[in-house]
UniProtKB/TrEMBL annotation:
<dbReference type="GO" id="GO:0071875">
    <property type="term" value="P:adrenergic receptor signaling pathway"/>
</dbReference>
<dbReference type="InterPro" id="IPR036770">
    <property type="entry name" value="Ankyrin_rpt-contain_sf"/>
</dbReference>
<dbReference type="GO" id="GO:0015629">
    <property type="term" value="C:actin cytoskeleton"/>
</dbReference>
<dbReference type="InterPro" id="IPR051632">
    <property type="entry name" value="Rho_GEF"/>
</dbReference>
<protein>
    <submittedName>
        <fullName>AKP13 protein</fullName>
    </submittedName>
</protein>
<dbReference type="GO" id="GO:0035023">
    <property type="term" value="P:regulation of Rho protein signal transduction"/>
</dbReference>
<dbReference type="GO" id="GO:0005078">
    <property type="term" value="F:MAP-kinase scaffold activity"/>
</dbReference>
<dbReference type="GO" id="GO:0043123">
    <property type="term" value="P:positive regulation of canonical NF-kappaB signal transduction"/>
</dbReference>
<dbReference type="GO" id="GO:0016020">
    <property type="term" value="C:membrane"/>
</dbReference>
């Protein structure tokens, strides 16, 4: 969801009815993104979430009704795996692992500033949504024989303790997300009581209201619809679309 800006040369600044697209071609996956015009010489779009770390070819294409699609320019673009993706992978693998989940509690003692928490929340939630989670993945871990009466730390405790609103919303939509709300940890706290104790009003509302809507801060991020080997992503903040397909 990083913003990509394209600067057009003088000869590329054409009529209003020309539509520009960016096409990213990787080894196994191809993305086509629409763009929005900021001014006659600049375009904006959102970088796609790729399936691996590699350098891909990106082409700027121009489309006009009744005319063939033109490739205006080509460039290379490198996808890397950042710390947020590493963190999401680690947390996803921690579901149900008490030793690992207790280890994450040291983050709470350092109490990062609110701005850092917001940045962490957005980046890790985005990375979580991009992870290819196994079909059997569950917020409570793989051992479904554990009852709700057994005190234990959960991923939901972790997200609520740090005040991660977007990540909490994501986990609520996953298998085991709602079930995690009533589980006590070894101190007797549930995710709901933690939110109340720490004064996270929006978070508490999210956890307790059945009709609670997604956080406003979530609405500027991309939303994805999957259909077989294809997916379409809409970024409401910029109002651009992205089609991803196997190359």
């Amino acid at each position: 969801d990083s913003v990509i800006t394209v600067q057009l040369t003088e000869e590329d600044k054409v009529e209003e009815d020309v539509v520009f697209y960016l096409v990213f071609t990787g080894s196994t996956v191809q993305h086509c993104t629409s763009t929005r015009k900021i001014n006659p010489g600049s375009l904006e779009t959102i970088s796609p979430g790729h399936d691996c770390c590699e350098t891909v070819k990106v082409a700027l294409c121009a489309s006009r009704e009744g005319h063939p699609v033109l490739v205006v320019a080509e460039e290379s673009f490198q996808f890397i795996q950042d710390e947020a993706y590493d963190a999401a992978q680690f947390l996803a693998s921690c579901a149900g692992n008490q030793q690992a989940l207790n280890f994450t509690r040291f983050l709470d003692r350092s109490r990062p500033p609110a701005a850092d928490v917001d940045f962490l929340d957005e980046k890790v939630a985005l990375a979580f949504r991009h992870l290819k989670l196994p079909a059997e993945w569950n917020v409570l871990g793989a051992d479904q024989s554990l009852t709700e009466n057994i005190p234990r730390e959960t991923l939901m405790h972790f997200a609520v303790r740090l005040g991660l609103l977007r990540l909490t919303w994501f986990l609520l939509q996953q298998p085991g997300g709602r079930g995690a709300l009533s589980i006590h940890n070894n101190e007797g706290a549930t995710p709901v009581s933690l939110a109340l104790e720490r004064g996270y009003q929006k978070l508490h509302q999210l956890l307790t209201e059945e009709e609670a809507k997604e956080p406003d801060s979530w609405s500027t991020l991309s939303h994805t619809v999957h259909s077989g080997d294809y997916s379409v992503k809409h970024h409401r903040g910029l109002d651009v679309y992205m089609l991803t397909a196997e190359a």
